[in-house]
Amino acid sequence: MADTHKPASPPNPEAPNPDIDAYAHEAELEAHLQTKRMYVNMGPSHPAMHGTVRMKVELEGENIASSDCEIGFLHRGFQKSCENVTWTQCLPYTDRLNYVSAMMNNFGFLNAVEKLIGLEIPERAQYIRVIGSELHRIHDHLTCVGATGMELGGFAPFLFAVEARELVMDRVAELTGARLTTNFGRIGGMNRDLPEGWIEKVHKSLDKVMELVTEIDGLLTRNRIFVDRTKDTGVISAEDAIDYGWTGPCLRACGVNYDVRKAKPYWVYDRFDFDVPVGEKGDNYDRYLMRIEELKQSERILRQALKQIPAGPIILDDWRIALPPKPEVYGTIEGVISHFKLVMEGIQVPAGEVYDCTEAANGELGWYMVSDGSGRPYKVHVRAPGYPILSAVPSIIKGKMLADLIPTFDTINMIGGEVEQ
Amino acid sequence: MSDNDTKKPTGDSQTPPKGAPSETREAPGSTPKHPPAGAKLDTPPAAHSSPTAPPPPPAAKPAGPPPPKNPGFVTCTIDGKEVVVKPGTNMVEAARMVGSDIPYFCYHPRLSIAANCRMCMVEASNAPKLVPACQTPLAEGQVIKTNTLKVKEQQRAVMEFLLLNHPVDCSICDQAGECKLQDYYMRYDYRPSRLEGGKVMKNKRKVLGPRVVLDQERCIICSRCVRFMNEIPKEPQLGIFGRGSHEVIDTFPGSELNSNYSLNTVDICPVGALLNRDFRFRARAWFLSAAPSVCTGCSRGCNIYADFMGQETYRYRPRENEAINKSWMCDQGRMSYKYLNLGRVLSAVVGRQQGAGTARPEVARKEAIKAAAKALAEVKGMVAVLASPLASNEDLLATLTFAKGTLGAREVYVGGRPQGDADHYLMTADKNPNRKGLELIAAGLGLALKPFEELVKAIDGGKVKALYAVGTEVPGNVETFAQAAAKLDVFVAQAMNESPLTAQATVLLPASTHVEYDGSFVQVDGIIQRFRKAYPSKGDAVAHWALAAELTRELGGTAAWTTSREAFRELGKQVAELAQFDWDKASPPDREKPGINPLPTAADGRPPGYREFGAPRVRGL
Amino acid sequence: MSTFALDRVTAQFPEAVAERYLDRTGGSWAVIHAEHLPKVAAFLKNELDFKLFTSIDAVDRLHLAENDPRFEVVYFIYSLSRHEHVRLKVRVSEAHPEVPTLVPVFKGADWWERFVWDFYGIRFTGHPDLRRVLLYEEFQGHPLRKDYALRDRQPLIPERPIKDIFRGPGTSGVS
Questions:
Q1: Exposed/middle/buried for residue A264 (C-beta within 10 Å: 0-12, 13-18, 19+)
Q2: Bridge partners of A189?
Q3: Do B600 and C150 touch (CB under 8 A)?
Q4: B592 touching C, CB under 8 A?
Q5: Cβ distance B291 to B306 under 8 Å?
Q6: Strand pairing report for B289-294 and B303-309
Q7: Is residue B491 a contact partner of residue B506, using CB atoms and an 8 Å limit?
Q8: Please, which residues bridge with residue B457 across strands?
Q9: A417, B32, B294, C68 - which has most CB atoms within 10 Å?
Q10: Using omega within 30 degrees of 0 as the cis cutoff, is the peptide bond preceding A313 cis?
Q11: Of the candidates B599, B600, B605, which has its C-beta nearest C152's C-beta?
């Protein structure tokens, strides 16, 4: 090829001129594709790479010979930040772990801290936590399902999902004051009660959300294109999934019945009647079905919880844990001292360590905390459910088509915030 | 109340550790003769002659105290742990030895015992009621419990009473963050107020004297301040007036709290009642970091903490040193921090000031060093040296070595602050922290010390044409000396603060103050004391020793030391008294101040106190 | 909480268990000597059905009262049949921060071990690919160590030459 570009050779008037002759390089068009391996960078800025993940994919033709997942573009030093603020000040950082279901992170963190202190929170607060968690589980699954549909070519399901999500977000905003980063709940209970008339609104919104879920279900579940792209792609066996540490809907899609809400019921989850869907094959389609079914189960839990929720206090009445009511802070020295100490020094968590977990939208959200007895955490380890799931992706797509990477990446629902801390 | 008790953190309901001796356990050898201490002291020995009592030993023994377990000492049990103390030790100190903290307000180890706050009440095996731990010396075999329900109820009740009339002031109170009321409320009370109706109103800003103001509402009448004034400086200027709710601390009619030790009452005040008028409302305690240092107000060398934020020192607080200042320091010394912040020479200047108010060309320190070196090189051997006893040992070692070795000086004129008044307790007449050090170092280097007056005469007589000054404090009139200095051909001055004299320097080099580097002083009794760096030097300043090193190098000499530690270790060998001093070991530990602390030293990548330059932020603490 | 698994481990490998204790919340812990860790993990997985690999992390005990050896690597493994976690600890010194890898036993250990290496600088001997996972290779130090300053700054690093990117097939490709 270098020969044709020799500057020394005089221009040949007989040679086809590529500027005017479409067949000038005809021979090249018919040449065989190079058979060497090709490296493709998926991301870090790629619409299908949720957040910013870079997959270095080595292609053999259209098959993935190997891949390397490079994460950390969204790393914000969650643990280091937490170690340098008071326990309560960690809460906004937990919002930003799984930012699609912030309340579950909030409550998971609080649950672990409360266990470390040895607190039993009021019943109403436990109900509010269940309600918040299930709302955000719906929110999270809707996002995942909608995005999966969109990235496989169907824009309508995404619009339906976003509409339903918007309804959930409105209720969340009424409850917490924020649409996304809720910073809701406090050590020892909740920082605010359900707004007036909110329960009825949630019932109405749920009606509409479930209508939309049915629409999405109808658009996707029996859609030929969708089924072809997802069925038998991204398959992982139950043994491998367990070995990698998968949890949540992705593990259940492999046929393993493990849900922290059932295995080790926390808060008041043992009072509700709900089922844990379990899949068979562990492929992308099963993972999608898990999410659709869990949306329906979350709705069941929500409706029961909204019916059962008892009246009562929403936070412990202990001024070493909970901030005193504002009239006491402004009016009495006892209140102002407690407020000052809790804000400036933080809650004095007795020295010790704890591992505790809750079921977040993507699986077991584990916390390992060490306290040295001061107002600031000594160590906050978060076991984000997405981390082990993402770590298995290179192995499950090995040898598969490049196009399978997209649905696989969708259905594992990797959230950059929690994986990259 | 009981509702809350079930939900409290598990922190305070711990069972004693397994290995700890229980109160019924005694050393095996003494079991038959010494029944469990609690039983023995609760009931008179005669009771043991009941039929169920073990027959042999008790009856045989006459009624009376059993022999002590450790002769010469008192052995007793506090919270299940055995403790051996000297006779006469009170329970607070003994409990501290075994890790049990007994709370107290009025008790102070260096003052007489008043036992009026009732916070330290504990259960003792030989008393039917609770006893004040600060006042009660330990008795042989006594069993003390500091965390029983009864004690807790007492502590809670005391806190409730103390807070009953306490104003809602934390947000405007200087003591917030280092206040005993706050600490103890969170630890021992944590209950809402049960007060209905108003609080007793008293004088909120009673000016007691030139340096102290009292908020009588915040006062809990612990009487620490009264006892301090009576017992330590022995100037009884404070008293308690009134009765019951109307009880207040005040000065006696017609007099004021003007003792030179009045600010110590602010330190020992457990609440925010007595306030330092100088420090009041200037900084929140939790933004300040503390560096262990030494007061430079006089030659006593009281140990202090320099509390600072950013590159400003806000206050001095006494640091305990049994040999020198106990827990106290004088007001004059405490106020002497101001020169660290104000009127500092921040950049190097070459050339004299032409007239009052005219600007002088500021140059980079490197340029000024070159100019100084050039000027000094021309007058080598004819340079007079003025050394200030305000400079540290490291400074003097380096500068005088430079003066002797490079400039060829044979004698050193002694500058420094003028003599002042001494008082009856800590303050000395010599207002310079390191005169002793200067004498030792000059002797060690073989330099003769000459009084300042001779320098004035020499300049007036035209004998001295060039002067190298380490510190520009002079014991005479600065104005007159400045006029004399104007006649000098070469005047290289290393100065911390602006003065009429620095205006006359042909080359002015900015020097660090003692809070800006590590170093040591020799105080009046010959004790060498280390002080530690609080924050980096302001402006372009470096320490005197570093300036001397730069000058030495500029003039072609070798000065290998790059830290004050190296300067001391290398040059201190020439001085016999300094040679034995372990510079590193003598460094005071960087103990955190009580109350809320900023992050541990340099945890955020900057020296402590550097929260943000300028305005402090609450976040990031 | 049940101590079943750790009781069995202690019975099987008495030499491997340095210490057993219950934390304040009732969690049962075993401190394992580093060299015995793989066999304890394999025993837990194969004999006791602790198969779900939960996570690994480490604690830098520098500022704690008890800080020798300096690091603690903690392991959490879950049993789907018994519904409980087993908590293991391995203590490693600052001078030799090395622990045998668990990758041959649990595939899930791979990324967690990379995480611990990344943030604490503890090496896992035998790990097939011990690279940093969240931070970049040029990062200096290990940021979750307590002596790494909160606001420490990293030096700028030169841009890496991009060697692994090729244009697609065609004439402009590098051949």
A1: middle
A2: A186, A315
A3: no
A4: no
A5: yes
A6: antiparallel
A7: yes
A8: none
A9: B294
A10: no
A11: B605
Give the 3-state secondary structure percentages of chain A, helix then strand then coil, rounded to 5. Answer: 50, 10, 40
Type of residue numbered A240: D
What's the pLDDT tens digit per position in C10-62?
888 888 888 888 888 888 888 988 888 888 888 888 888 888 888 999 998 88
Cα(B609)–Cα(B599) distance, integer angstroms: 9
Task: Answer whether A352 sits within 8 Å of C54, measured CB to CB.
Answer: no
According to the model, what pLDDT value does residue B45 have? 39
- Subunits with at least 3 CB pairs below 8 A relative to chain B? A, C
Residues of A in contact with B11 (CB under 8 A): 348, 350, 373
DSSP run (H or E) holding A360: strand A352-360
Tokens 């190079």, located at residue: A34
- Band of residue A10 on the pLDDT scale cut at 50, 70, 90: low
Phi, psi angle pair for B24, to nearest 5°: -90, -5
Place of tokens 């993990």: C41
On chain A, the residues whose CB falls within 8 A of the CB of C135 are 72, 75
Q: How confident is the model at residue B8 (pLDDT cuts 50, 70, 90)?
A: very low
d(C-alpha A279, C-alpha A258), whole Å = 12
Asked if B384 and B464 count as a contact pair (C-beta separation under 8 A), the reply is yes
Instruction: Kindly compute the dihedral angle of the four CA atoms of residues B121, B124, B126, B130, in this order, to the nearest 10 degrees.
Output: 30
For residue B125, give Cα distances in angstroms to B24, B64, B155, C12.
12, 17, 19, 50
The CA distances from residue B620 to A83, B161, B604, B611, B616, in Å, are 11, 36, 9, 8, 10
Strand ranges for B46-127 from DSSP E: 74-78, 81-85, 121-124
Classify the complex by whether its ipTM is higher than 0.90, answering yes or no.
no
> Own/partner pairs for B377-382, CB < 8 Å, 24+ apart?
B377/B555, B378/B490, B379/B465, B379/B466, B379/B489, B379/B490, B380/B406, B380/B407, B380/B408, B381/B407, B381/B408, B382/B465, B382/B466
- Asked if omega into A11 is within 30° of 0 (cis), the reply is no
**What span, in angstroms and rounded, lies between the C-alpha atoms of A24 and C25?**
78
At B287, which amino acid appears?
F
Helices B435-445, B393-405: axis angle to 10 degrees equals: 30
